[in-house]
Specification:
Its EC number is 1.1.1.271. It is an enzyme of class 1 (oxidoreductase). Pathway: Nucleotide-sugar biosynthesis; GDP-L-fucose biosynthesis via de novo pathway; GDP-L-fucose from GDP-alpha-D-mannose: step 2/2. With 324 residues, the protein is of the alpha/beta class. It has a domain of 220 residues: Rossmann fold (3-Layer(aba) Sandwich). Helices cover 44% and strands 14% of the residues. The strands form 4 sheets. It has a 6-stranded parallel sheet with strand order 2-1-3-4-5-10, sandwiched between helices. It starts with 7 loop residues before the first strand and ends with a helix.
């Protein structure tokens, strides 16, 4: 007997990761994908979230909804970052449990780990040291999300899973001049500099920090892979108190290398200057992805190829804005 097609709710379907998850699910033939815009469903409103789960009979949840941003945004809006993320996570996880949802995947962030964690970062390094101060409120919220899922699994026997992605980029990214992450921020600045004929671009920080970057469609594929693992396979590669799984490429580059690579992809031919008076953030952040590889999945998109696709998507979005 064939299993019925699951009803899958993707929370945050308009965001970078959520939109990639929807693309991946559709490409794999899933037709019962449930989405809601922010105007249609306010996830910080518990009554609204409860009503949604009562009416929609959801089988699986991808919890990709979050307030996100780079160093500037995290420094400027710490209260919003911790409040919004705590409320969204708590409401969705709790109401998914109340509604009897079969499986939930919570998406966290690699910033949950100690600022000076040994490299590469293993899942069991969680809470073994101080966090990076520039994004501590966001990181605390994401740690709470992991522990929320673990606690519901322990007390109620739910099948709520967590994945911790590395730095992501690709179609659907946020290119805000102040609140974006490093790759979209660099891409926009290099594009504007090229368009304006500028002779140089100044980059915040020394350029020395090492970062790992993953193309967002690879992340989405990893999420679907982890979601569909048999419970015994997932449990065999996790621990009750560290049940989350790192998702990354297993390789990193310096911000200096990244800036020059983005500049090449965009076609900027001027000078790139690093302002060492600005904050660098965490010195290095590379995830140990051995658990994920043991579960049969590895990233596929090389950084240069991913950046080229991301820039194509950026140009297409620019053209669409002009046409509108």
């Amino acid at each position: 007997m064939d299993h019925p097609e699951p009803r899958i709710y993707v929370a945050g379907h308009r965001g970078l990761v959520g939109s990639a998850i929807v693309r991946t699910l559709r490409a794999r033939g899933h037709t019962h994908i449930v989405t809601r815009t922010h105007d249609e469903l306010e996830l910080t409103d518990q009554d609204a979230v409860r009503a949604f789960f009562r009416s929609e009979r959801i089988d699986q949840v991808y919890l990709a909804a979050a307030r996100v941003g780079g160093i500037h945004a995290n420094n400027s809006y710490p209260a919003q970052f911790i409040y919004d993320n705590l409320m969204v996570q708590t409401n969705v996880v709790h109401e998914a449990w109340r509604a009897g949802v079969g499986r939930l995947l919570f998406l966290g962030s690699s910033c949950i780990y100690p600022r000076l964690a040994p490299q590469p970062i293993r899942e069991d390094y969680l809470m073994e040291g101080g966090l990076e101060p520039t994004n501590e409120p966001y990181a605390v919220a994401k740690i709470a999300g992991i522990k929320l899922c673990e606690s519901y699994n322990r007390q109620y026997g739910t099948d709520f899973r967590s994945v911790m992605p590395t730095n992501l980029y690709g179609p659907g990214d946020n290119y805000h001049p102040e609140n974006s992450h490093v790759i979209p921020a660099l891409m926009r600045r290099f594009h504007e500099a090229k368009t304006e004929g500028a002779s140089e671009v100044v980059i915040w920080g020394s350029g020395k920090p090492m970062r790992e970057f993953m193309y967002v469609d690879d992340m989405a594929a990893a999420c679907v892979h982890v979601m569909n693992l048999a419970p015994e396979d997932y449990a065999a590669n996790t621990e009750p108190m560290h049940s989350h799984i790192n998702v990354g490429t297993g390789t990193d580059v310096s911000i200096h290398e990244l800036a020059h690579l983005v500049g090449e992809v965009v076609g900027f031919e001027g000078r790139i200057v690093f302002d060492a008076s600005k904050p660098d953030g965490t010195p290095r952040k590379l995830l140990d992805v051995s658990r994920l590889r043991a579960l049969g999945w590895s990233a596929r998109t090389p950084l240069r190829e991913g950046l080229r696709r991301a820039y194509d998507a950026y140009l297409a979005a620019q053209l669409a804005d002009v046409a509108a």
